[in-house]
Amino acid sequence: NYSQMARSVEGLNAAGEWEVFRSLLPPLQDKRVLDIGCGFGWHCRYVMEQQAASVIGMDLSEKMLEQARLRNNGPGITYLREAMEDIDFPPGSFDVVLSSLALHYTGHYDLICRKVHNSLSAGGHFVFSTEHPVFTAMETQDWYYGTAGQRLHWPVDHYQDEGRRVARFLDTDVVKYHRTVATLINGLLDAGFIITRVEEPKPSPAVLEKYPEMKDETRRPIFILIAAQKPSAV
Amino acid sequence: NYSQMARSVEGLNAAGEWEVFRSLLPPLQDKRVLDIGCGFGWHCRYVMEQQAASVIGMDLSEKMLEQARLRNNGPGITYLREAMEDIDFPPGSFDVVLSSLALHYTGHYDLICRKVHNSLSAGGHFVFSTEHPVFTAMETQDWYYGTAGQRLHWPVDHYQDEGRRVARFLDTDVVKYHRTVATLINGLLDAGFIITRVEEPKPSPAVLEKYPEMKDETRRPIFILIAAQKPSAV
After folding, report:
1. How many structural domains compose chain A?
2. Cα–Cα distance between B142 and B165 in angstroms, integer?
């Protein structure tokens, strides 16, 4: 299950996209940070290691938060059980809002963009990763296999039909929401953000040499990372 | 061949993405406009109909330009035979640069973004359409078919391997260049642009009712349109 995945047990360095995600974060020293969908709290720990002023880790799952409190507690970290759609912080509460692989679980992406924008100070940053539209378009969310069981290619269908997908993940049905690239970008723009970077991480040559099976991760994008900023002056 | 395609003969309204493309253009009245890869010149005609000050239509193909001069000539329109990589206009020459389905033919996207940025006045706009990374990733650029010839899905592979693709188009080998979504966005950002809109056009309900076979165009994105702006003040 989730708690046995490398990224859950070993933390951020076991997540292939972490180096790219980290490169998108602004300097965190003395910053007030919100982590939407904090899971086991690894990002909260990292944020405080960077000498942030404080971080709130939000998650809807009490089980996740239990593990977060157990594994990644410390001064300046507050864990909060709340649905991301219910964010309701006073304007300007945070300097940085981050979210790692959580936004594909919400059916209210545009609302969250607006709420995050409102919760940020002027010049504040919103950095997130989410499952890539190429990955979420089909409910199977799996390769298309040949008769010998080989991975022929990644199938895309229903790309323009945004909305609910029931995917199998670790033998459980998980409800996710498919959105197009355009919707991901325009939701931020409509909320008032400036786009500062878009990344579709791939394994580095060093990683490919060490883990040749990661080659398939170059065949289709699995995550998209977007960095956005609230303008400093309006 | 190309000259028999509806969009070549009938002009912009025969191109499914035109309504979306047009919606991304700023007001054109009194603007100095450059059209990169002007083809038969339909966009140049449209630009002048909007009472632009002038438009330069650039294309590498003398055959295209012959047709453009024949079909879409008029006061204010200049056709110029030049490779888009060789753009070399004085800084601030244009208020609007547009390009319709041409940039997937260049291996030098980042360079062109920089050159376009340089050629624009402060506050100027760059609006383009190009083949979507989902469409260009595989060289086949075709559906994956079932044994009964039905379109099973759109196959994606080699997504992270950017570069040259030799595709078949109207029975001819055509060299195109595949780039990721991230590269398309970041090339603009690195050149100094602000992203103002991203679109992945799909047939409207009205079009789907009139042309039910267009349903497949909702199954995968074929084009991506990006609107960007050079900041007004630096």
Report:
1. 1
2. 13
